[in-house]
Every structure is written in C-alpha cells, then in structure tokens.
C-alpha cells in the first residue's frame, strides 16, 4: 500500500465519497503550468497565487461535475431545500477539486460533512388532538347567597399547540357526598395567543340549597373539552359553606359629630337552620373616599370597625377621618363559621345601602379652663402674667387673649395666635384693674367660647 503521503490515496478517498469504484479510479493529468486559455482561471478560486503549487493532481472536470451535482441534489432534497440553494456551492466544490488537488479533496470532505450535518427530516409528528389543558386554578368566592367561580380559560392543548377549535366548559356541583351533577355548560372560545389568557366566570345562587338544609358544603369542579367531547381531566375542587348570613342592615345613617363621623344602623339576626356548623354573626363597617375625593381613581374600601352580635342596634363613631373630605359608608354582615373538625372561615352577607357624608369641621374647641392672672412686675417694669390649662384637641391652632377694664368691652390684645398656655401682658398701667378671658382656636378657625373671667390689679 502506498504511504499516506502518496497522491493516489486522496484520489481513492474522493472516489469512494463520489461513488467511483476502485476499478474506475479517477484519471489525473500531468502537472502543467496554468495557461491563460484555461477557463478555470477566471474563477476566484483559480487565483494565480496557486500556480506555483508543484505536482497538483487534478480530476477531470466533467466526470467530477456529474458526481458532485448528484450528491448535492440528493442532499438538497434531504434537507428540504431546492437544488438552486447549492448552485454556487456546487460550482465552488467542483473548482476546488479541479484546482487544489489534495487541498480540494479536503475541501470536499469538509463540505460534505456540513451537508450531512444539515440532516434529513425526522419522523413526521402526529396531528394535534386539540385537547385543552385542564384547569388547575379554579377559585370560589361567596357573597350573600351567591357563589362566584373563576378560572383561567385554557389557551393551549396538551401537546403545546394553541386551542384552535372551540369546545365547552362543563361546571359540576356536588353537595356533601352526593354525586356531582352538571349545572352549566359554557362555550370555550379558540385561543388567539398563548400569552393572552382569559378569565372565565360562573355565578350561582345558593338560596334554595341553604334553605333546604341539604348539606353543609357545596363542592365545584370544571372540565374543559374539545369539540369532540374529549378532555384532559377535571379541575381542582373548591368548596363553599352553606351557612346563612344576616340580611343586609337597614336604616344606615351617618352624621358629623365633634369627634368624627357617627354611623348607626338597624341589625337583625338571620333565621337559623339545622347544621353541623356553628355560626356567630358580626357587622363590618366599611368606608372609602368618594371617587371625586380620591387622587387616583376610586379608593379601596377600609374596614373601620367590626361589631359582634348583640341585641342593640349598631352604632360607631369613626374618629380616624380627615376633616373636609367626603366619605361613603356601608355595613356588611358577616357569618363566622366553624366545623366540628376545626375548619373555620367567614362568609360576608349582602352590603347595606351606601350613605355619603362630608366631614366638615364646624365644631370649635372647648373653652380654656383654669385661667389665672398675677402681677409679676416692678415699679419700673409693669406686666401681668396669665396662665391656663392647655386644650387637648388634635386640631388646636392656638389661643386668643381678651382684656378690658371696668365699664369697657373686651378687646383682643394679641396680634397672632398664642401657641402656649401662657401670656405676659406688658401693656398695663399702675393703679388699674384688668379683666381677662381666653378662647381656643382650631386649624379651621373655629373659635371656642371665652373662658371664665379672671382679673388682676396693677399697684
């Protein structure tokens, strides 16, 4: 066998790759200088910088072209491409074999490797069964005698495709351990985009079930099917307690008082029914800023107070308000239930009507108390010191000082509100008796009545 450096070995390898048998080894031409009339010179791969390569073995161009063309066409079809995709590459390969001898052989080997790396199509995939994925996020919320179910409508099938054809959503309910029954069938629309999920809802009244005492809990599931009625399974199960809730409170009133806003309502207990669940009742007072007062749309409700069950009507003073704002108030009854096994929860009843009130502060502070006047000066420096008990209002702004002598009307002697419960009157004269009263002023300029009068004489 020839050594690895023999020029015959690359030709045999290429012959094998191109499908030429050992008895049909490719002929070669004697080494010759490239001549201008050779048509390969005009190709970029026939650059004159290779003309000095000694003993370059060349393949006959027509024979090689036929083999390379057949190989390229076969691989183009295997890759799913038209034969035209390889036309430039085919010509370059033929020229590489013809011009570069052993180097051309190497180029062909690398090129064929790249073609083979393209691969051929795998086994055909089976068609989508178009079975929607099952629901896993079913939720239930009860308000009064109604239950609201919600879930994300499936957008994809079990094999990852978009739900292309509509189907239906089957809603089932079971009370206690009774068999589940279909209570509604909803349409399942086709999906537009997998990232644009839609929330589906279903609402049902529980009034008849609660009144009949059929059980303590109702369980719900949903099943999504395709147009042929096939599904991937039933959703998670959710339950709601079948406890009674008090009726919506009546006669809700709200009025402004010095401490804040006073809310009153009439409350009544519901009619009891046989049940294994123990229940207690409460009334939840809620408040929110009226939409016109909210800075960014409707404000979220806040729970002001929760009053437990009792025989008296409900009453509460909301001291957490801000003055000069408009509020909406309503009352929601609540049933607090507990099962024998320790499970517990709550169900809100229907809300009362909403009442609106403007918290306008028209209430002055209390009149100051404990006012005393004492002459504390000397013959060269005359003044009277006043002291009194401080007011405790949160919106207190300060005090006014009123003074008069016998036979005259009181006059305010301070130019600005006095911030502390003391004052020194330096505008007095000897041998005169002065009478003083103090008033308190809040942040909205509501002024209290004047305090009890006190007096002091300057010697």
What is the β-strand count?
A: 23
Q: How would you classify the helix and strand content by structural class?
A: alpha+beta
Helical element count?
Answer: 5
Shape: elongated
Write the layout of secondary structure elements.
Blueprint lengths: L7 H10 L43 H18 L8 H14 L1 H17 L20 E5 L2 E8 L13 E9 L5 E8 L9 E8 L1 H6 L4 E9 L5 E4 L3 E4 L8 E8 L2 E7 L11 E12 L12 E7 L5 E5 L7 E13 L5 E5 L6 E4 L10 E7 L8 E6 L6 E9 L6 E2 L9 E4 L6 E11 L11 E5 L1
Antiparallel strand pairs: 1-2, 2-5, 3-4, 3-6, 6-7, 6-8, 9-10, 10-13, 11-12, 11-14, 14-15, 14-16, 17-18, 18-21, 19-20, 19-22, 22-23
Description:
This protein has 459 residues and is of the alpha+beta class. Helices cover 14% and strands 35% of the residues. It contains five helices and 23 strands. The strands form six sheets. Strands 3, 4, 6, 7 and 8 form a five-stranded antiparallel beta sheet that branches. Strands 11, 12, 14, 15 and 16 form a five-stranded antiparallel beta sheet that branches. A hairpin with a 2-residue loop joins strand 1 and strand 2. Helix 1 packs parallel to helix 4. The termini are far apart.
